[in-house]
Amino acid sequence: MGTYKLKNDIKVFKYGNPIETGAVVEEKIKAELENNLDIKFEKGHCKISIKLSSKDMVYGLGGNLGGINKRGRLYESYCIDEPLHIEDRTKLYAAHNFFIISGEKSTGYFIDFPTRIKYDVGYYNENCFNIEICGKDFYLYIIEGKDAKDISNKFLHIIGRSYIPPKWAFGYFQSRWGYRNKEEVKKVYHIFREKDIPLEGIYLDLDYMDDFKDFSISEERFSDLKGFASDLKKDGLYLVPIIDAGVKVEEGYDIYEEGIEGDHFCKDKYGKPYEGVVWPGKVHFPDFMKEETQDWFGSKYKVLTDCGIEGVWNDMNEPAIFYEQEALDEAIQYAEESKGKNLNVFSYFKLKDNFTNLANKDSYYESFYHEIDGKKFSNDEVHNLYGYYMTKSANLGLTKLLRDKRFLLISRASSIGMHRYGGIWTGDNSSWWSHLEQNINMLPSLNMCGFFYIGADTGGFGGNCNGELLTRWLQLSVFTPLLRNHSAVGCNNQEPYVFTEEVLVNSRNLIKARYSLIPYIYSEYMKSVMDYTLMFKPLSFEFGESLAKEIDDQVLLGDQLMIAPVCKPNRRGRYVYFPEKMLEISFLDEDMPTSIKEKGIQYIEYGLEDFKFFIRKNSMIPYVKPSKNVKELDQQNLKVLAYVDDEAVYNLYDDDGQSYDFIEGKNYSTEIKIIKKTDDYEIIVENDNPSIKNISFKIIDSKNNTTHKEISTC
Ligand code: MIG
Fold it and tell me: How does pLDDT run across 202-220, given as a tens digit for each residue?
């Protein structure tokens, strides 16, 4: 065991000979340290057992199901294409092995290990947190701090700055698997414009490809993608096409041939390119662990950037495998042998399971190989790095291709480290109310693991959405950096205009509210990422009471807001816990009615036509008038709604939204200070943002809900 320290006193324990995953960017310094955790090695696995006291909360573990407090559940880190996010599932697309145990004292842990880890967070024995690391080579980081918030900020520092998309990526996106051709896409765009619903872009799913081939464009359905993309861009609309991990095996297909030629594919046990079956039929998987392959695959995004594309989504990169030929053959053979026989139930189940269990079998991942620094590793040994390295490859490629222009990049599979290269969507959820609630639960956990450009499929991916669910979902997604309505082929359409007139009006208003709030959401995003702090925080990160620890369908957004969406059908309101006095706002109403909420639990009326959130004391929220896309956002007349007790300060961050110049300090700040005087307010604005000319204030007195209005010129 080697022991190290990071410069901010974080302890690092090195066991065996771990693979350098690149998750942590801070340098390790040799140090003499002792680890007093209960660690055992058994049959090549490592078992760690940590005692939990009744007061301990467990935070983190990123893209997993469950609440903000991860206690009382089982989890597993082994990236998988899981189409059903049901309650007993232990693993999804992410391997985010950072968690904090927080009670009397708080300690953070990060297990830097590229494959399977199992967590029993006080499930079988509520006082025991048992971890099984399925291997013996890993780094264990132990992070002490004053509390959970402090620890999570320290962790964000050591894993390096998160990916920063362009500002347009904060717009509203429509997506659907099954927009079959240009005409259908155009139609969607036209309806949005005609119905006056803001729209930033449309995602293109597999439909745009020729026969599911990466970096190909269907001549039949999406001919002249370049012309099409450029026409749409004239109106500020972006297209965001999908890329899958598997490359179709097909003689004459350039990507396949280059991949073979350049030795870019993962190998099977005989040293031949490994073959799995996904959408295109037989595919090879690029070996993203090799730098040459990262360069090669990354450079292929040129096919898309040449068409004027500035955003992509990387899918199926767990990697998902529908089946292996051999496994299918065995199933067929068993079926043939069973034909005509009088099967008993066990044989019948076997027959059936042979087929239904074909996807993503563990054995597949043991049967193909990567090359890392000239050494061979089975995918199973480095499984969780696949989506990470695919997205790194895309990021490096797009950076070269688009140079100083920021791009939108999201991935389905991820592990910590990937947060520096792209964002994520949370995969194939369903049009279920419970998944709306799951969406809010997951936001802070993802932030803790470095993922900030995040969002779920609004309205739900699988199943049929209805107008009420879509509206409620939008009331939450308006706050998530990635706002995308996406659904699966075969289920009903769920664009905001396919339901009733009422749903259309409500969705339109909500999407407009999103655009109004983009200056604030962008500012919060950028400040969180640049300062290594959480954008979405559990209430308990700020408030000590026991209720604050139990509430996980409410979160804090930055230091100003609390959001509490309605996550149940048929409701016209909900109980909200106020950990302190706050201001309730109905944002859509022209007069923006407000009411002061005292500390405690209160029933809040919240209809479908409304958009509510809560401003903390001595806080404010800036907004502008809505526009049809980010490019047309007009910040000239900035508005501020403030809730002031004695003094409120907000620093509105902004930059050009498209280049990386902000890193060299080319960004704007508008510092707004509102000080309460005996019967008036003093407003001090320090503004270097040339696009802001006037700021109009609506200040609510925290004592009596009286309103004070004022305009100041910058
Ligand atoms: O096997 O590309 O999560 O967003 O629409 C399904 C089709 C493959 C899974 C993605 C989903 C996408 C779908 N993909």
Answer: 999 999 999 999 999 999 9
- State both tokens at 615: 């401003």
**Sequence-ordered list of residues with C-beta below 8 angstroms from that of 304, at least 6 positions apart, any chain:** 215, 241, 312
387 lines ligand 1 (CB under 6 A): no
Cβ–ligand 1 distance for 13 under 6 Å, the answer no
Per-domain residue ranges of the chain: 2-159
Q: 């294409």: which residue's tokens?
A: 81
Whole-number pLDDT of residue 590: 85
Which pLDDT score, from 0 to 100, does residue 354 have? 96
CA of 315 to the centre of ligand 1 (A): 7
Average pLDDT, the chain: 97
Q: CA-CA distance, 58 to 108, in Å (whole number)?
A: 10
- Cβ of 468 less than 6 Å from ligand 1: no
Which residue has the CA at smallest separation from atom 5 of ligand 1?
A: 177
Q: Residue 428: CB within 6 Å of ligand 1?
A: yes
* pLDDT exceeds cutoff 90 at 429: yes
Give the chain's largest Cα–Cα span: 92
Please report the DSSP string for 129-164 in residue order: EEEEESSS-EEEEEEEESSHHHHHHHHHHHH-PPP-
**What does the pLDDT look like over 14-40, one tens digit per residue?**
999 999 999 999 999 999 999 889 999
Atom of ligand 1 nearest to the CA of 205: 2
pLDDT at 455 over 90: yes
Does the beta carbon of 319 sit less than 6 angstroms from any atom of ligand 1? no
Q: Return the half-sphere exposure (C-beta side, CA atoms, 13 A cut-off) of residue 495.
A: 23
The amino acid present at 336, given as its one-letter code, is: E
Q: Does domain 2-159 have CATH number 2.60.120.620?
A: no
